[in-house]
Write a structure and sequence with these properties.
homotetramer; alpha/beta; eight-stranded parallel β-barrel; four-stranded antiparallel β-sheet
Chain lengths: 337, 337, 337, 337
């Protein structure tokens, strides 16, 4: 961290700033220029907030040089993290396919989906039991019943299960069935939930908030990591912009950037980003070419009848075609599906 | 809601759509044009999601004409809602001033602030006991101890207390001390929390998420209202944009728009929007002129020493000046401070 | 400007950077810390681009401490600039009202408007002769004929005229009639046009691009100023965000911020920002309270018949009411309308 | 277009609206429901603006069902447009590579680049002679001299040339040298320039403005097309969002969407979108997988010495590697590089 002092700052101001930051547990080194005096901070700077230092008398500007996240960073752990879920590994050569409906709607729906997406090549079954919905009047999921159906689908298909957890007290309940806890975009900065997930033994797939910078996503991951859970999978799913043709704007740069900044595996959800079925295939191909470790694809036995997000869901045949089309792209970048 | 059918839609497609939507409990009326067939929906359309209907065979476009929120709307309740907190009323001629530090840092800090902001004209004391922070390494608040200090500040000053609640299980605990529960921007779509707040007897101040549309804010309010709590105060606090000089971009249009769309009182937080002390006064004046029902101002005995958000906090004298300067503006628009 | 060198930078890298920047005409001072070496630049840093320096071998980060604009800055010219247009002065106690239709549609329309807005209190008549429109199929303005009508309106009413100029070769033609050249939001970074306006003797009202930062607005002003025209008026008119209830999101913070960063007068266009008539009054009041030097209000004899932007136009009575309602607010902040 | 009338609209209001729209040259069909009356418009709706109709007495909402662009749409021309430039074709199986520096800096630089990028597989040489720069103090290009060097590079290498045109009066001059006129992001809505380009016989590469929706990009293309030039190539280059790690947010969905909405070829500029060299390769691979017709890559003999955009430029070896790595990805999606 670098503190640029105002031209008008007195020697006392400068000394006071030095005393204060050193009390916070970091070392400082002073650089007195003709125009500007600069104080550089060295040490555990991660715990110091810019806004607090900005506030000291005589300070013109505070600039963070190092990254504000630590456990999530490549500097802290240079080798890629492998997150294992039963026999499946995120962060290796194989790109993991997660597929299933937005919401568990019935026993038949989820059992049929499990069997069909497994046949097509998926390793993990998704399906929401607890659904965050913008409107209190929309379908909120089958809740406990949905978890039961997921458990049965797991047993029958052998697929691992990922499902969303919406509040800290749901973590143990959902964790009984889920192999991976999903934290949704709206909850990316629900810190009580991040802490509860950080104390769970289960891997966590953390979706980027639609208003979150990549730095904030990594800070949210840091909450989970610093609470003791090292099995975090990051997930890009589109951000909110002014563009209206798509539900969200998929930020494809997130894939190579997160891979560079962090050792954690990186997934991508093209279905939620696009909001339209037609875009799922081209965006999935692009994501594979860009280096993604996993994809989450919405698949529904009958998208037309889906209680939520049908417009962006593939049916079984479309999903099967998608897997076939991804194979050569994966090979072209030395990966496999 | 209006359903525009594709030119290629068959009479069977049209009949199927009609059957489906009528099964959802609304009435339909058909308009067959030369080019397009249009199905209008009448009745409890609020419970039907566009994305589900969009998904039906033969549908080209679904257009919502009526608003997706109901209890929060002016149509549902034409007269302005008055939210009473002890002797204070939001939504009346008097503009309510809420003041205090970002975080409760010590007993002395909050007691002194309570007394001084009351003298200057504030009716309600703010102060975070539980603090949502981007970094797990930043100060997270004094928690239960902070609540104790707030309780004492309330007793000594006679001011009502507003403080943030971050998870459903905190609602009863925080509710013991708080006269108003604050739901922060990051939690605006934390539905478990909205539901818990909806079941509390306490008034709730709901902050707009930094990437939430006004419609989403009103839908979040609808969660609280539909769970039985009618004492909701809306709060604009800036949205995230590309502009970097300010922490957030204050959306001043939110004040007249929310007032028009909804009967709920509307507050504004210029401190968080701007992120810089200098802007708090001009934005507060503007908000008063635009018709706000209350203002939340960060005040700290010594902003330079604040553990969070010091750069945007006023000291006691600055707050007192602000109140003085707001008075003539309030009078100019037939309100008072 | 501060250059932070990588930990891995060699002494040769550091010396090379120093040589390069000194060749660019600035002085450097070196600060060697235990962890990081920092090079500070002093002098005419305004002409050095961060991206170029970022690019040198061994550089980790480049941080601009000073502002990239100069002639537009308060540091360069501390006292407020007064832009005089015939008898009217922008940047003084009186808030200047600019009113008129989006487009000049007919001789009668503009003559009638001129007389009526003058009666109500406007000092300057607006009206587009050349209109930038998203669609090539929309009405593009009356062009030269429109200028003629504006000239007649000026003569008959005594009001000064502001009208938009869309390309460099139009500058002389439009300048024959216009007392103020308007550069629209879409052309804020049309550099050929900025240069042509910079060489004109006429004052220029420069509108903020709908996706431009305030810094970019001031850089665009710098183009005009550095070409020799010091009579620049800045104008906030809303930026593009994700919010859909308003046409644009009015950035009210721009008013106090531009006033602090620059000596140039600051206007605000609530009509374009809001896109809806109902919001024009509350946003105008707010702008006056926030310290604006002028307002641009769309007024049309019969907004229902307007060929463009009717939804956001006031009729004569509404404009007259607006002026009346602004008066007490202006007085409350020691200004007048 | 669909006009929803207010519940309070009188039969006269409705008749008046019908009369007005029919006078605009379209047919209307009326649908009177129990709650709402709806007027559908059929015919040349493209010339009617929503905002004008919105404005009529009794109108609640105006909804555009058809697209506001016509000549650019797939409906108008279902087969893909092939834009031929000398022997090269945009919109065919081969993905066209455009490479070269941000700015022409010297004869040697551009000649060397031309030869090296041709060897590596590029078909077209890019290089700015006239440069739009945020700051008036930054390097603005070699202008006419730069065009001369480009002409020589063309002669020596046999590559076609693309270079930017910044104002209408530059079109003939630049057109003497350029095989493709580039219209930059900042000028996407510079209508005088679009019209001038529309009258030129040269193909035009139109970059999406950083604040422009895809619809607005297609409307800008419509300006060129409707002025008689059918050789338009669309180019995605990133949009402005809140994310700070990248210069812009590349909107990868634009590739399949523009391909679906329009018959025009679609290029992508990963260099400007990312702003960092490391991202150019993964984003290029992703774009190829997503179905792009061409790529624009910044290449510089010595990126460290580049006068602009060096941080995002590849050197010759990096470009050569990129071409090699794109080949298998192109084959995987049945294209070639």
């Amino acid at each position: 961290m670098i503190i640029v002092m105002k031209t008008s700052a007195t020697p006392e101001d400068i000394q006071t700033v030095i005393n204060k930051v050193e009390k916070m547990g970091v070392k400082s080194h002073l650089s007195e220029g003709k125009e500007k005096t600069i104080i550089g901070l060295v040490g555990n700077v991660v715990s110091i907030s810019e806004s607090q230092v900005q506030n000291f008398e005589g300070v013109e500007k505070v600039l963070r040089v190092s990254k504000p996240f630590k456990l999530a960073s490549r500097e802290f752990k240079p080798e890629k993290t492998e997150v294992k879920v039963n026999g499946v590994s995120f962060g290796q050569k194989k790109i993991i396919l997660i597929a299933g409906p937005c919401a568990v709607e019935s026993r038949e729906q989820i059992l049929e989906t499990a069997i069909r997406v497994k046949e097509a090549g998926a390793s993990i079954l998704r399906g929401g039991a607890f659904k965050p919905r913008t409107s209190p009047y929309s379908f909120q999921g089958l809740k406990e019943k949905g978890l039961e159906f997921l458990a049965e689908a797991k047993e029958k298909s052998g697929l691992s299960i990922i499902t969303e957890v919406m509040s800290p007290e749901q973590v143990p309940l959902v964790g009984e069935v889920a192999d991976i806890l999903q934290i949704g975009a709206r909850n990316m900065q629900n810190y009580a939930l991040l802490e509860a997930a950080g104390k769970s033994p289960k891997p966590v797939l953390l979706k980027r908030g639609m208003m979150a910078t990549l730095e904030e996503l990594l800070m949210a991951a840091e909450y989970i990591l610093s609470n003791g859970n090292s099995k975090v999978i990051l997930c890009e799913r589109g951000i909110r912009t002014f563009e209206k043709y798509t539900r969200n704007t998929l930020d494809m740069s997130a894939v190579p950037l997160l891979t560079k900044l962090s050792h954690l595996p990186v997934c991508l959800d093209p279905s939620h980003a696009a909001g339209v079925r037609d875009l799922v295939l081209p965006l999935s191909k692009a994501a594979v070419a860009a280096g993604v470790d996993g994809l989450i694809i919405e698949v529904h036995p009958n998208p037309e009848k889906a209680l939520s997000d049908g417009a962006q869901s593939l049916n079984f045949d479309e999903f099967s075609t998608l897997v076939d089309k991804l194979k050569p792209v994966a090979e072209a970048v030395d990966r496999k599906v």
